[in-house]
Amino acid sequence: MLYKSIQKYLLSFGFLFFGATSALIAQELNSGDNAWLMTSTALVLFMTLPGLAAFYSGLVSQRNVLSVLMHCFVICCVVTVMWVLFGYGMTFGETIGGYMGSIGPAFLASVSLDSMAGTYPETTFIMFQLTFAIITPALIVGAFVERVAFKGLILFVIGWMILVYFPVAHWVWGGGWLGDIGYRDFAGGAVVHATAGVAAIVFARYLGPRKGFPRTPMPPHNLPLTVLGAGMLWVGWFGFNGGSALASDGAASMAILVTHISASVAALTWIGIEWLKFGKPSVLGLVTGMVAGLATITPASGFVGPLGGFMIGIIGGAGCFYATQIVKRRFEIDDSLDVFPVHGIGGILGLLFTSVFSSEQFGGLGLDEGVSILDQLHIQLLGTVSVIVWTLIISYVLIKLIDQLVGIRVSEQDEIDGLDITTHDERGYNLDNLR
To answer: Looking at residue 152, which CATH number applies to its domain?
Structure first.
């Protein structure tokens, strides 16, 4: 009972961190908490495989559908190996100056069957956090589909996880400097969406556009597959945000409620703007708006109430819609599947508006004692800008280095033929065999 009180107090102020060595608090097993966290783990992995994989693969041409599925699956495998070897320690190990966790023994050698993290086994926590590590680089895939070299992609994921994801996750969730100053990111607005979005725009700008962009229309080859993937993302996001409460309690329930509200409102906001501007609402706009609402509510989901969820949905739907117009039409950057406008801008907006809607006067769960909305906004700005700048610099240097070593973009002919056949010697659709 005492632990539950302490946990809820720390969670409400954004300071709940469990580390591989120093920050684990052994308590008696709570089967309800463990069952919910295991369920959430499955839901978050479901977001990537098959959710994100289906969502993205439906949006590309039929010549590249397998390549996108391949990217999502191989990222899952690569990140898992890294997490077991050293990623978990770098993220949740004993902090080194507030910037990185100690790597610790490889293969999670210090973790046993009896190791506890709060009221559930540490193995449950390890697996839950791994699913967040998996989906983050998978989101970036949408920026460079149909033109990235497979070898370059794998090297980028390895380097980027070591230099960007693991350190930033430690800063925020693992006992690092951003957590210490009261930075609020409940489920990954900065750790997942801002880092992925910034890396995506850097990657897209460096690679250059697909052949024909922006003059040649590039419609989705299978929109029903994209809609199906979007539905999987929506359901999986309940584990993403609700599971981040790390307990089967009211905080988890509220996180799920505001997540659903924001997704619904953002989807309606997006197609409403489309309807006014272009005369017709689109199915693609509806599901993209939904994802924008989910990304925007993510950092705030553990701190706001239904009013906050509603308002953040409007902000996310409108803000991300206009961001897509600016990126593709004004700057003509071929962020192919709108990773930066939707996930990057959505995550950043959510981080900043957490300051406002966390306040009790807007139905939130409250700010720290003595901290005003402006004080919290200053903290959020400092932390978010730090994450953006770090991610931007490291991503660019890493892409440039990999390009020099092995090449980062396929040849023009390979792009024309499609990556399914040129990279993997397979086809997503064997239409010639149909009778």
So the answer is: 1.10.3430.10
